[in-house]
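Hey,

Quick one before I head out. I ran the complex with DGJ overnight. Inputs first:
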Amino acid sequence: MIKRINNLFLLETKNTSYLFQILPSGHLEHIHYGAKITLNDLDNLNDGSLADCMLEKQAFCPGNSIAYSKEHPMLSLEDRMLELSSLGKGDIREPFIELTYSDGSSTSDFLFEKAEIQTGKNLLMKLPCAYENLPGTVWTLIVTLRHKEKGIKMELIYSVFPKEDVITRSAKLYNESTANVQIERLLSLQLDFDKNGFVFTTFNGAWAREMDRSVHVVTSGRHVNETLTGFSSNRANPFIMLGNMSTTQESGECYGCNLIYSGNHFESLQVNSYGKTRLSVGIHPTGFSWQLKPGEVFESPEAVITYSKNGYTKMSHNMHDFIREHIVRGTWKHKKRPVLINSWEATYFRFTEAKLLKLAKVAKDTGIELFVLDDGWFGGRDDDTTSLGDWYVNTKKLPGGLKRLADKINDMGLMFGIWVEPEMVNEKSQCYATHPEWAIEIPGQEHSLGRNQKLLDLTNPLVLDYIIDQMTTVFESANIEYVKWDMNRIFSDYFSTSLLPGQQKEIGHRYILGLYHIMNVLTLRFPNILFEGCASGGNRFDLGMLCYMPQIWASDNTDAICRAKIQQGYSYGYPASCFSAHVSGCPNHQTLRMTPLDTRFHIACFGLLGYECNLPELSKEELAKIGDQITLYKKWRDVLQFGDFYRITEGDGKETQEENQSKTYQWLCVSKDKKRAVAMMMQTWNIPNTVYKKFVMKGLLETGIYHFYNIPQKVNVKDFGSLINAMAPVHIKQDSLLHNVVARVMKLEGEKEDYKAYGDTLMNCGIRLAPSFGGTGFNEQVRVLKDYDSRLYFLEQQE
Ligand code: DGJ
């Protein structure tokens, strides 16, 4: 709900309040964002006076700060909490807006003009944004401000999503003057706090190391989370959190914030000289400048904020529900996602139709539902130096084209999907030979390549039409039900032949707008295709992409141990229904690590499950196990894909590297109706004689009785190595033929866990699990949990 009470604006969600006011000077002053406050419940005090105690009192300009005006000589903007701040009128913190006018000046001053409260949610003009899922559930406030002398109008747009405890913000700038104005920055969100010492959590990384949670306590100066890669990037995801030193997963205050944008972003946390903190979020101002001509409008992307007074878990749940309900759209929004086999790590560029069909056949036999043909099917693409841009089938590899392959795969009872990377071009391609001017590069200057490829110039309408036409032809050429949309380099050598010299700093943003245009056309044209975003894994994992593609390939790192950390990082800001995770071969192709097949599945099933390995070369035993995994996953898929996720053993983010390496992950996913749950425990390093493990549940019905159980995993006697001789009647040489025969015929029973208990017991006391093997002692009640071993547990509410 949104209320205006005199000069106050109160935005309310189920558990939070956001309050600001119009100052006598016309500036917008922020008052409160956090847990709920009440302003007008008393009939006779419906005048806003109940807010008086919260208003900042200023009776003089402190120190050598700037006095705003003769009319308001006691107003100093330097230390006021503001909804937006511009340069040059005394607020010397990070500005929300920075403009250069035709006279060369760059001082701006935006003052209140009017406000309008609407039901519903307007969409942005060219940028993706959140939407109202059910009529009458979202409210919007549009506050109009004006820089009087310069004829520039700004709208601050607030939308309130009560159920998910989310507020979104964006801004629009209208040039109502007769001269050009240069936008040096227009951010999306400014949020001022009257305290400092926030724990600023960011998710940093690189290729194959996405979403590494890092914490920074900011008591002075500034910490910036940012990327200049041209994309939202794996270096610094746009999702950030603010907490207190004492905030835990389950308790304490915290804010989560994200930006619905796929390009360069900027999240700055700055503490001023008086100890107040400003969070500023938006398009990165570096390398950005936009010429706004008279009559034109510029809109900034939408920022998303949420608050929880019950720790990081609740904050994550707000974000998860918001993304599922108000970001992801289309046919696949609530639909269970299929289990897939992807050809990449199985074959890379080296495949024939026969090889793919063999892979598909074995996949089908294990219960897989979708076959995805990855890179290498088009042009002369036998390696990554060639053919991007030439989207016609390589008939040497696929003589019957995509159609014949797809038909045969469909005949097996599998869906068919395909990989594309439409935003790119290789120099070695017909596309580049015909249209070198379509690439982003500076004419006459050597171009710095990334993965041997160049970006196509998505600021050029001809290029947009080309990509849309090419992709339409591909998607219509066979029964394609899934598309993996990849993007494998970052920006360099920014230049577009289709833009004037004065517009060259618009390229980054125009590229992203071009991409959104393509995605919009194609997703509307092919509403039933399941699109999966990808950018060398998670180099463009953001809410902008999720507005078009319901899921994203989270990382090229398929190693389960690394993945546990990466997926746990994503879980802070994104629901499991948004990230895919694959079981791959061993040794793993990124780390060369050996990890049990059970563990690879246990980690991957907490994302959208797929397989990415050469199934026909696996043993019968492994294939049977994969078949069982998929059957199990299908039974629990609705819980795992759409339930509430809990990080049970996660610490405060300040662990040492060693602590992190010896971590035991415990995850839990509870169905929305709280009747079913899946839990996972994975140990990284085994430390001897630490046999005690407990699992404390969350999110269950306190009064519900649950059946908690595992499916016992068989123990391989070879896991004990030469220890077998402590029991064996004859000596068995390690790895000898006899050892292998014994291991094949004699599987030891793993521990069984089977309890019934009330939800409150499971949550308030927890389950004391069977003891781990601790260097001594073994029987069927002992859990053999080596390095990288894991367990799944299930909970079902009893009638
Ligand atoms: C990068 C992706 O992240 C991989 O999964 C794979 O599709 C390759 N590109 C193909 O070139």
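The chain has a mean pLDDT of 96.

Talk tomorrow,
K.
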